[in-house]
Structure formats: C-alpha cells, structure tokens
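Sequence, please.
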C-alpha cells in the first residue's frame, strides 16, 4: 500500500517538505515496482538512495534546529541516528543476502512507517518552534 502525502505532513519549510516528499516517493516507487514483479531490482536502488538521501536530509533538518535553538535537538538527533542505523542494517542484509521480499517488507514497515510517524510526531514540533522564532 502506497503512502499518501497529506497536509498533516507539512512542516511549513519548503525544503524539508520537498525532501520528505522525495523520501516517501522512493518508498512508493519500490512498492509500485513490487506490484509489477520488479521489486528485487528496485530494492538495491531504493536502499542506496535512502542511505545517502536521509543523511543529507537529516543534516538540513539538524542545521535548522541549531540555527533556531530547538530545545529538543539532542533527542531529535538521536531519532535520526537510529533511523540511519536501520537503513544501514537493511543495506548490510541486502549485500549479504541479496534482494528478497523480507527486505522489501522491512523498507515498507521500518522505513516508510518510521518516516511518516517521525514527521507527524517530531518534525511538526520543530516546524512549530521555528515558526514561533520567526514571529
């Protein structure tokens, strides 16, 4: 089942919102490929993209948090570190085992669900904090 972008995922920061959309698109592209029997081929590309792009995205988010003195920065950074580790673990499994449906499930469950929940629970707090500083 594809992830749908909705207004409750908006942070109000165009760069961050666009990056979130790219992350969700990558997962949706993988799920779409799976529905067409091409998931194993797409899996490696998706894992490489997520491994690289999340680090870039999190660096952007963390820079904003530092700039606006976000009070929960240390915890937020820990969430990002945990996520990067999850993606790296999936990448290691992919290299060791090759593409398989279990890893597709991990991308969907561990990565896709984490991103959506993290945006709704944590990133919106960051966005609210930044908005309060801009007033």
């Amino acid at each position: 089942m594809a992830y749908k972008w909705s207004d409750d995922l908006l942070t109000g920061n165009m760069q961050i919102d666009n990056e979130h959309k790219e992350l969700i698109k990558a997962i949706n592209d993988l799920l779409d490929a799976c529905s067409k029997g091409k998931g194993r081929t797409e899996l490696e590309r998706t894992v490489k993209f997520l491994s690289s792009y999340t680090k870039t995205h999190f660096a952007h988010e963390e820079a904003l948090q530092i700039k606006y003195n976000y009070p929960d920065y240390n915890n937020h950074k820990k969430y990002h570190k945990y996520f990067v580790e999850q993606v790296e673990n999936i990448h290691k499994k992919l290299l060791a085992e090759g593409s398989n449906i279990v890893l597709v499930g991990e991308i969907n469950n561990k990565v896709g669900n984490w991103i959506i929940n993290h945006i709704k629970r944590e990133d919106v707090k960051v966005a609210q904090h930044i908005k309060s500083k801009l007033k």
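The chain is about 80% helix and 0% strand.
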